[in-house]
Amino acid sequence: MPTDSTPTTEAATSTDPAPRIEFEDVEKKFGKTTVLKDLNFTIGRGERVTLIGPSGSGKTTILRLLMTLEDLTDGYIWVDGDPLTHDRRDGKRVELKPKQIAQVRKRIGMVFQQFNLFPNMSVLDNITEAPIHVLGQSKDEAKENALTLLDRVGLRNRADAHPTQLSGGQQQRVAIARALAMDPEILLLDEVTSALDPELVGDVLGVLEDVAETTDITMLIVTHEMQFARDVSQRVMMFDGGQIVEEAPPEEMFTRPKNERTQKFLEAII
Amino acid sequence: MFDSELFLEALPVLLKAFVEVTLVVTVLGSLLAAVLGLVWAIALRELPAAIGRPLRWVLDFIRMTPLPVHLLVVYYAFTQISPKTVGILVIGIHYSTYMAESYRSGIDSIRSGQWEAATALSLPRSRTWRAVILPQAIRNTLPSLGNWAIAMFKDTPFLIFISVPEMVTAARVFGGRNFSYIEAMTVAGLLFLLASYPTAVLMQKLEKKLAY
Known about the structure:
The structure holds 2 protein chains of 2 kinds.
Chain A: H1 9-13, E1 21-30, E2 33-43, E3 48-52, H2 59-66, E4 74-79, E5 82-83, E6 86-89, E7 92-95, H3 98-105, E8 108-111, H4 123-133, H5 139-152, H6 168-180, E9 186-190, H7 198-214, E10 218-222, H8 226-232, E11 235-240, E12 243-248, H9 250-255, H10 260-269
Parallel strand pairs in A: 3-10, 3-11, 8-9, 9-10
Antiparallel strand pairs in A: 1-2, 1-4, 4-5, 6-7, 11-12
Chain B: H1 4-46, H2 49-63, H3 67-77, H4 83-108, H5 112-120, H6 125-155, H7 167-178, H8 182-210
Helix pairs in contact in B: 1-2, 1-4, 1-6, 1-7, 1-8, 2-4, 3-4, 4-6, 5-6, 6-8, 7-8
Domain ABC transmembrane type-1 (chain B): 19-203
Keywords (chain B): Amino-acid transport, Cell membrane, Membrane, Transmembrane, Transmembrane helix, Transport
Subcellular location (chain B): Cell membrane
């Protein structure tokens, strides 16, 4: 839990610890298209939540907003009670400075559908780059951590390889190690197996299941792998048209969906 | 007729002009152009439009007006600078505007996922440029930079406009003195070829070496 960050009025007035993530009246438009509107939800500390829904329902946008890859059109996102991109001061919405945003963003990591490893660096350098240059770790320390993480994802023997020499599944496991090297409180997984050959999916999900079991990292997962969602997450949120249409624990959601839209969606994909 | 004795006589004379002027101007001009071009390309992406747009106008203006005009203007405007230095600066700046375009397309070719991964790791902007974007972009840009350097090399005879005694001028003087131009001009052409060709080969090798 971050202790060095300045608490906002929100966090200061509340006696309970602030939720890990809070979306408050979030709106996101791309041009004239509204993707998310009046979206409110909270994610608890250590909670693992899967977002499902048809494409265009806004689930990936939620992850991208949290990672500050997209600008919020309106509303607020709070991380541990701290404002992510916009703060409320005297009832006004104020955009934060890049340095302030970076402070909170450091607590968040993301794994992408397309891996997005840096092809000009070795596997090891991909993992140590940010710990050295963002967290200020020494090279030796970063290397040691990286090798431990590579062990965990089963790729220690490929530390000196370049990403182009690896299979998609191996690249994605390196990408997971790279995100974990930043010791994030929140891990965003954006369709991490969608670009993989079917026989490589299992290894990647296995690594993520291990992370879920052995850490208390809060996870937000966008996936079409329903078995994985069921195994890993404590809550599933069904999105449609930028709104949460239903949310429930996975067993309930996948066996007895209440909402008609959810039923149709699950029928179509399972 | 082709006088081979005159040819051999012209060789050392022109070689001297080649090394002292053509080569020096090309090497220093290329370095200047490569550095400035990169500065322009990054500035155009990073600066706010209020500064970026005027910068773009200036670069477009330079790129779309002839090199000899620039040489003459700067030569007459700054008489205190030696003509050779004027040549290096003007050629370097002129070609930096072309190289900036090459860098720009190299940078644009980097997939947005690379920028996003850098953001997700909270890498500072400067570090993202230095460690992630530029190593990939420059590798994509290198062949084109090499071509601009060779084009610059072939443009050095324009220095005749500001009376810098580069190789082609030396060949003309030599030809005039001996009442036969063909030998000296042949030497000049061969020297150009002898320098351009290995440069092109070298660039190809460098490209391969930078591949990953």
